Amino acid sequence: MENKSILKEILETPRPLSEEQKKAVLSESKYLRIVAGAGTGKTETLTRRIAYLLLYKAQEPASIVAFTFTERAAQGMKSRIYERVRQLKGEDACAKLGEMYVGTIHGYCLQILEDKFGYGDYDPLDENQEMAFILREGWGLGLTKDGGYSKNCGEFLRSVDVVYNELFSHENLGQKAPDFYRQFTKYEELLKRHRLITFGQMIALAVQKLETNPKILSNINHLIVDEYQDINRAQDRLIQLIGRNASTFIVGDPRQSIYQWRGSDERCFEEFLRNFPICEKVSIKENWRSVPAIVKAANGFAESFESTRYEPLAPTREQTSPVYVTDFDMPEDEAKWIARQIKELVEERKACRYPDIAILLRSVSTSAKPFLDIFRNEDIPYVVGGKIGLFQRDESQAVGRLFAWLYEWGFWKEGFFGEGGYMDGDDLLKSAIEKWRSVSKLRVESKDLSKALTIWKENVLNNAFKNFTSIYQELLITLGFLKLNPGDKLHAAIMANLGRFNTLLTDYETSIRLGGRKPDWQNTLKGLCWYMNTYATGAYEEQPTEDLRGIEAVQVMTIHQAKGLEWPVVFVPCLTARRFPTSRTGQKQHWHIPRDLEGFDVKRYEGGIEDEKRLFYVAITRAKDVLCLSHFKRLTNSQRPSQFFNVVNDLAKRIDQNKGIDSAHLITDTENDEIQAFSAGEIITYHRCPYLYCLREMWGYQSGLDTEIGYGKSLHYCLRCVSELIREGTNPEKAVRETVKEKFHLPFAGGRMLETMREAAENILTQFVKRHEQDMLRIQEVEARLEFPLEKATITGRVDVIIRGNDDKPSLEVRDYKTSDAVTTFKELCLQLQLYTLGLKKLERPVDSASVAYLDPKHKGNEIEPVPIHQDDLKAAEQEAENSIRGIRKASFPPKPGDHCKNACDFPQICKWSNA
C-alpha cells in the first residue's frame, strides 16, 4: 500500500477523525499538548498517532515510548496498534512492535533500573507487600510511639511516598525532619539489604540515575504520555528528561484528575507549556461515548469547578435518552430497586449482559453492603472492586477468621471499621463454619467440620507444617475444597477468591522469612491476625474481573477504580451529603514530615471539595447509554442529598420507579478481542496442565516458601554479570569470584545456610565458565528482552544469552541456563527456546542453533544439550503456543494428570485429579 493510501486509512478508518484529532495525529511540532475530555476518543487518537509514526513516518518501534496510567490501558492500546499495523501492512510488519515500550511509568523505570543500573536482582514490592515489610521492621525504626503501631506504620509509608513523589532534597529533609530522616534512611538501607524496591522508589531512583546518565535515553525519538493530569512531580521530571531530545506528545484532562491523595498534581499539565515553550496546543471536544443528555449533565456540572476551565464537550451521538434521578426512603430500598432494574434489563428484556452494568460508589466499604446482600438473594452475579473487595466475600471471611482463631488471643473485626464490634475465641470458629457452609452449599455437618478444624489447629500449633501455603492447603482440604467444581460458575468464583487469600498469606509470610528468619508460629500467627484486622481487610481487592473470564457479572466498584472505563449502563447511588463528598473531605491527617516542609503541598494530599467534584464528574462520564443517579433519605437519621446530586438534578429526569429505565437505545459491546501478553513460561505451564495454569496464573494460588527459593534466579543473574565482566576483559575466575561475593542473594536464607549456598554457587559457576570460556567470550547479549505477535497475542520472554557463531558468517545461538531438569523438562525447555528462536527470526536475527546449558554438575545428561530448531520444529512450537493461547482465551482449563503431578506441581494436595 502506498504512503498516500496508508495516510488516508489512518485518518479515515474505522471512522473518520475529527479535525482536531487529525491535527493531533499529523502534528510536526516537537512538543504537543492535547486537552481530551471524557469520551472524546483519546486512546484512538494516540493509537493513530503511533500508527502514523510507524507506517507513514517509518519510525523504528524501538524509538517510541508510550506511557499509560494502567497496564490494562496499555494492553488496550497495544491491541489497537497491532490491529492497525496488521490491517495496513500485514502480519510481518508486526514482528518488531514488541521493541516499542507501551506500559506504565513504573514498569518503564523498573526496566531501566534492571537493564542499565544493576537492579536485576531486586524484587518489586506492591503496597500490600510493603505494608507487611514495614510491620516487621517498624519496631526497629521506632514506629511504636504515639498511637497504634499499624497506624504509625501506614502513616510512615505515606510520608515516605511523599518524599519520592515530590523528589524532596535529602539534605533539606535531614535539616527540617531529622527524626523522620533517620528512619527513612534506615528504611532504605533495609530495602537494599533485602534487594527490594518499592513502587515509589522505582521512579525516584530512575530519575536520579538518568539525571547523570542521560545518554541512556538517546534512543527515544518519540514519547507519548496518556492521562498527564494524573502524574506526580517525579514522573513529570522523568518526562522532562526524556523530552530534552525526544518529541513529546501528552494527553490529559484536568477535569478528571482524581489521584491527588497519592501525589498526582494536575498543575503539571499547565506547567508543561512553561517547560516546553514551543508547544502546540490542541483541544479535542467531540464526545463519542455518551448520549447527549449525559454530555449535557457533565458540562453543566463542570461549570461548578473553580479551577481552570476547558471547552465543554460536544455530543456526537444522536440517540435521545435522559439522565435519570430518583430517591428512596432507605438504602435497602435503593438497592432493591436497582437490582430489579438490572434483572429486567438482562433477563427480561435481554437488552444487555451483566458485565454491561456498573454500580459506582464513592466508597465500597460504606455503601456496598445493601447491594451485595440483595444481589446474593436475587442470584445476580457480581464482582466487587475497591480495596475491601476480597473480604466482602463470605469464603474470604471464613478462612480469615479461621487463621485468626489459630492465635491464642485471636480476634476478628466485625464491619470494615470495627463498627460491628470484635469477635474472638470459639465464636471465630462458629462464625467461620456458618459463612463457609452458607457460601459453598457443601453438605457438611457443623459438628464434624468443627472437630476436623480443631485437629487442623492442633497440627499447626505443633509445627506440623513448613509454611503458610501447606497450612492453607490442609485447611482447604478440611473444608471440602476438593468437592468444589471449577466448571461451576459459583464454585469458580469461590476458588478464585480463596486463591487471592493465598496471596495475602504469602505476602505476610514473605516479610517474616526475609533474611533467613524461621517462623515462630505463635508470634507469626499473632502478627498475621493483626495484619489482617488492621490492614488486609481494608486493602486486598477481590480477584480482578479479567481473571474471572467467562463469569458474567455486574461490576460494583469505587469511582477511582472506574477511571478510564466505560459501560452502557451506570448507576451512581448513595448520593447523600455525608457520603459524597465524603465527610472526611479536607480533614487534617497525621504526617511524619512537617506540614510546612518546602515543596509539600499538604492540602493537595488531604483533598478538598474540588477533588470530590472531579471524582463525581468522572463517575457520570463513565456511562454510554444509561445514567441513573440516586440517594436515600434515612439511615439512623434523615439524610440530605449530595450537593452534587442537586447540581445535576435540574439537568435530569425524575424517573417513575414503577416504569423503570428505557433500554431501547442501548448499544452493548461486542466480545472483547484485545491482544493479551503471555510469557513463554505461561505457555509451558498451560501446556503442562491447563488446570495448573488456572490455579497459579488466574487465581493466584502460591507455592510454599522455602530457604532455597531464588537459587536458580540468583545463579542466572550472577552468570549475566559474569558474562558482562568477561566481555570487558576480566579473568573468568575473578569475574565469578567478585560477582558471587557481591550479587549472590537468597531472600529466605541467612547465616551458614547462605554461605554454604554461596560457596556452592561460586564453585558451579567457576567450573562452568572455565569449561566454556570461549562461549562466554562470544556472548553478544544477556537477558535479552523479547516480545513478538502470535495468535491475537504477544509472547514475551528474556533470552538468557545470545552467542555469536564461530565462523565469519553472521550466525547466532540462543542458550538458556538451567540448574536442573527436575521441574522443567528438556522437552518443555525445547518449546521455550523454539519460541524464542521464532521471535528472533521474525526480527530477522540469524539464529541457526539453540541449546540448554545445565549448570548443576550432578545433571546426568550432557552439560550442553542442543535444541532442534528446524523449520518443522518451529512450526510445531508455534502451533503448540497458539493452541495454548486459544485455550486460555476461551477459559478452557481441563486437568491433565501425568508425571508432572509428582515433581512439577505446587498443588497436588488441592487438585482432585492429582489425588485421583
Features:
single chain; 916 residues; alpha/beta; Rossmann fold; 5 domains; seven-stranded parallel β-sheet; six-stranded parallel β-sheet; 35 helices; 25 strands; 47% helix; globular
Class of secondary structure makeup: alpha/beta
User: Could you say which overall geometry the principal axes of the C-alpha atoms support?
Assistant: globular
- Describe the main β-sheet briefly: 7 strands, parallel
Strand order of the largest sheet: 13-16-12-17-18-11-19
**CATH class assignment of the largest domain:** Alpha Beta
Average pLDDT number = 90
Number of helices: 35
Distance between the termini: 58 Å
In short:
The protein is of the alpha/beta class and 916 residues long.
Commentary on this structure:
This protein has 916 residues and is an alpha/beta fold. Helices cover 47% and strands 14% of the residues. A hairpin with an 8-residue loop joins strand 14 and strand 15. Helix 2 packs across helix 3 and helix 19 (446-461) runs antiparallel to helix 20 (468-479). It is globular, with a radius of gyration of 28 Å. Mean pLDDT is 90; it is low at 545-550.
